[in-house]
Amino acid sequence: MIKTRYLLTLSLLLCADTIFAQSAPKWGGGADQKDYSFGFSFSYVSSYFKIDKNANWRNPFYDTDGTKVTDSLNSINSPNSQGFAVGFLYRRMLTEHLEARVNPGLLFADRQITYTYSNSSLNVTKSVQATQFDLPLSLKLKSDRIHDIRLYVLGGVKYSKAISGKANADIDKAPIDKLVKNIGGFASYEAAFGCDIYFEFFKLSPEVKLSNSFGDVMRHENNAYSSPINKLGLHTLTFSLVFE
């Protein structure tokens, strides 16, 4: 009887210890206990161009020597294109619920523009290929911590610089084979939401971000694919996993 009571008491103590251990908040590697911390991110990127056409965008295109290159256009559109990015994170705490973040990274993505003509044999999709360096600066507004989760919203600006592309790749190509190109650098505004999930040795933040470029991102050239377009804007949706 005494042995049974002893075993029951020991079992209750072990259960209580387990329950309290499970309910104790995770440390998250101490990221929130410091004025600053570092991390890294992996991102899936989906983007497309917002196309503003010229008034005469449907007209056939003629080369400088008067040669007809394309028939009249029926449509110009930009389908969603996928890519990925890797980045480095620096976080600086401003208050308990507000922090500044810098998240430089490399983006690898192809964007596309599809042209359909009255002569369907001329229909073509042009890829705008580039490796891009992004430098975002943002403010992160955080909720109170609920157990091991903290919700947040984020807003800021980003500067993007092309570090590889096809600036002169079509210089010797026929007019029908010319490319559409982006300018070397442009700025965007960003907004995001996500949550911080605390583990024992690190903090994981799934995040969804929307960004739109300021102004025009197209390099204007006199060819069959750039001339119908007045302005290109870049719309990007990003899903990231951020580790601190």
TrEMBL record:
It comes from the Bacteria. Keywords: Signal. It holds the Pfam family OMP_b-brl_2. Residues 20-217 form the Outer membrane protein beta-barrel domain. Residues 1-21 form the signal peptide. This is Outer membrane beta-barrel protein. It comes from Mucilaginibacter antarcticus.
